[in-house]
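**Fold in tokens:**
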Amino acid sequence: MKFQTRITSKELFQFLMKHSYAGFHGKIGLVISLAAAVLFVMKMPDYSGNESAMVILGLIALLFTVIQPLSLWMKAKRQKIANPAYKNEMEYTLTEEGVNLQAGEQKGGISWDLIIKVVETKSLYILYTTRINAFLWPKKDMGEQEESMIRFMLDHIDSDSVKLPKRMRSRK
């Protein structure tokens, strides 16, 4: 089974957002920012004469809700430009042994047992091979093969050792 893709900045951004906010630290950061926003709004009248406290509270409120997403968007744009793999179309081939990838002249692949986690978003499948490295499979590029490719992947990975989304666990 094969499909071609050209990863966009939007897809890289989606991956970075999911990766940054899905974990414990991302959730704690959001809670801190939201709490700071609530305090900012509730205590605004009480801060007259203490503008520095308002500025600090405002910055904390914006940190994980505005500043970090903007930073991740810029990082996605830079990665798209700087990484040679994202400049070329990538071709994924699923075999009995694993996932093969060709991007321009570069070829590589991994065996199915090296996939440690699969995450599904609205428009992406993210196949983690380490805690931070992953293959990005845009659903739009998988086309009509999407369901059969995911079934093929599920048939070849050890679902007991690979973290899967709930929807995928029920497919096995």
Remarks:
- The beta strands are 2-5, 90-94, 98-103, 106-111, 117-120, 124-128, 134-138.
- The longest strand covers residues 98-103.
- The helical segments are 9-21, 24-43, 51-82, 84-87, 139-142, 146-156, 166-169.
